[in-house]
Amino acid sequence: MKKYTAIIIDDIEQARTTIKQDLTTYAKDFEVIGEAGGVVEGAKLLKNQMPDILFLDIQMQDGSGFDLLDLLPDIPFKIIFITASDAHAIKAFRYAAIDYLLKPIDPDELTSALDKFRKSGINENDKYQFLNERLKNHNKPNERLALHSQDKIQIVEIQSIIRCESSVNYTTFFFKNGDQVVVTRTLKEFGDLLGDQGFFRVHQSHLVNTRFIKEYVKSEGGHLVMKDATLIPVSVRKRPEVMKMLEMI
């Protein structure tokens, strides 16, 4: 069994203890090689030891997790952020496709995050920079979205997305330039995330950017014609909502 190393940086000792205990119980392939209680202490630790994965608290007594990352010349390790239940921060994490754990940490969520880590070999510096940008500019509308595909992370303009289509736990994004990107996240997640950005779920398998709707054809069960000539079915249950939505555009 392959072994991984971990460092925990959190200003609450009990939080660090809980993560160590959970790793011992649920992830025996992870060894905690160090821990720190703040930004300064954590930066010193990381200059001497580089883990495979870092559990990093967002807000600490002497600064933020991003203050710590700014002190490092490179981030060659995976990060799982730890945060309190902050609605804005959570939405920023989702836009950046970043793994995070809510306090108190749920063992199932921890296990899921570690499973993603084991399968991922992507350098994620761009995502951390993007997340930091989103957190600092929380009063501005979200214009970009990080999409984590199998082999890379793409930062895309939200209004370049024509539609999204689901297939089990995969979602395919279709862009106005003809590109497609497949990500391993459900359509429901993106429906929740993009609902206030002009996107509307018209079918169990389809989420559309309303700016690209050309017309709604009522016959033959009802479907949308998008500006790229794609035909998108509208479910029977969604028809009244779609009609109301179109009247408001």
How does this model look, in words?
The protein is an alpha/beta fold. It has two domains: 4-136, Response regulator (Rossmann fold); 144-248, OB fold (Dihydrolipoamide Acetyltransferase, E2P). The chain is 33% helix and 32% strand. It contains eight helices and 17 strands. Strands 2-1-3-6-7 form a five-stranded parallel sheet, with helices on both faces. A five-stranded antiparallel sheet has the order 12-11-10-14-13. Strands 15-16-17 form a three-stranded antiparallel sheet, with no helix packed on it. Helix 4 (87-96) links the parallel strand 6 (78-83) and strand 7 (100-102).
Features:
Rossmann fold; OB fold (Dihydrolipoamide Acetyltransferase, E2P); 17 strands; single chain; 2 domains; 249 residues; 5-stranded parallel sheet; alpha/beta
What is this entry, summarized?
With 249 residues, the chain is an alpha/beta fold. 33% of the residues lie in helices and 32% in strands.
Main sheet: strands, sense, barrel = 5 strands, parallel
Number of helices: 8
Order of helices and strands: EHEHEEEHEHEHHEEEEEHEEEEEH
CATH topology of the largest domain: Rossmann fold
Number of domains: 2
Radius of gyration: 21 Å
Measured distance between first and last alpha carbons: 56 Å
CATH class of the largest domain: Alpha Beta
CATH architecture of the largest domain: 3-Layer(aba) Sandwich
Helix content: 25-40%
Strand fraction equals: 25-35%
Mean pLDDT value: 89
Strand order of the largest sheet: 2-1-3-6-7
